[in-house]
Amino acid sequence: MIKVVVTGIGLISSLGASLENSWQKLIAGESGIKWHQPFPELEPLPLGLIGKQPTKLTILTESVVASALKDAGLVPPLPDCAVIIGSSRSHQASWESLARQMYSLEKEEEKLENWLDTLPHMNAIAAARQIGANGIVLTPMAACATGIWAIAQAAFLVQTGQCQTAIAGAVEAPITPLTIAGFQQMGALAKTGAYPFDLHREGLVLGEGAAVFVLESAELARQRQAKIYGEVLGFGLTTDAYHPNQPEPQGKSAIAAVEQCLKRSCLTSADIDYIHAHGTATQLNDSIESMVIQQLFTYKVAVSSTKGATGHTLGASGALGIAFSLQALQQKFIPPCVGLQKPEFDLDLVMTTRQRQIQRALCFSFGFGGQNAVVALGKDNG
């Protein structure tokens, strides 16, 4: 099987406009979550905004793709590069804007000539145009598991020789009135902040963000003397087939996804040094995820969630987790679970940045509809 490595990362979050800036603030224990009122019809609430107002999906995608290519030392056009960029909410902000204009009392004439650009797959198509890619384009949409799904699909394409290079990740600009109202109706939104795995956690905080990676065969990376962040060792993808928004109470499919990932990676649970947890700070997710970890890992593996720092970026959250995990492998620091004050669960939760050399990490994402995605990452040892 062809070895797959990561040679470029582009990342933008509420913490910062680059991977390095976001990482430095993360390991300093800072949070990008602040009080905002982006829509006058809705009350102020804690949000992980990149700027002062909600960002646009297209601008976010173009910026993060360009950053990833620059980081990898690649210059467009890249005709043979696969593009796998997903999103959970996609162009919802544009759809809501269109609906408001269509049904407004003023009946302003809406310009519809570019409405095709807001179809769910068109963001990835735009990225393909941006880099001059003529090969495979995929647009995974798997709720909060989207980011890891995208990396898994890209890794599979490279592993099987369908392409030597892929740009993959997820982009999310979910701060819209309907998204906020929907999560409020579910009772899932926090009132003051995000506190993953905390006894007094309140729920999730919505955040904007994007992370995109350049994946390529190790052979090609070495030929062009590219820097290597780490290796994608394997992945596990399952579905609960249980409920639209509640995880299966016994975590059976989540456990299966972890076991599948370990098996494909030729690893055991004892080989894992760090778990970047999904850690949404909701009551159900954190309790079931903790149970899954306790059941599979007989020793206390280091665990943290970075959503207390970035907010929950929905479809992009797994991609951000992969980026931070690769930084942990490289920089020998385990990022903290920002916002955690009083742990509820018997886990080795990283409350402040921990200096430690790690060889292998797992990233978890558990999305609505019971979408479970797990990826294993390892240091590149040549």
From TrEMBL:
GO biological-process terms attached to the record: fatty acid biosynthetic process
GO molecular function annotation: 3-oxoacyl-[acyl-carrier-protein] synthase activity
SUPFAM superfamilies linked to this entry: Thiolase-like
UniProt record similarity statement: Belongs to the thiolase-like superfamily. Beta-ketoacyl-ACP synthases family.
Matches recorded under InterPro entries: Beta-ketoacyl_synthase, Ketoacyl_synth_AS, Ketoacyl_synth_C, Ketoacyl_synth_N, PKS_Beta-ketoAc_synthase_dom, Thiolase-like
Record has Transferase as a keyword: yes
Name this protein carries in UniProt: Beta-ketoacyl-ACP synthase
One Pfam family this sequence matches: Ketoacyl-synt_C
Domain Ketosynthase family 3 (KS3): 1-379
SMART domains: PKS_KS
Keywords: Transferase
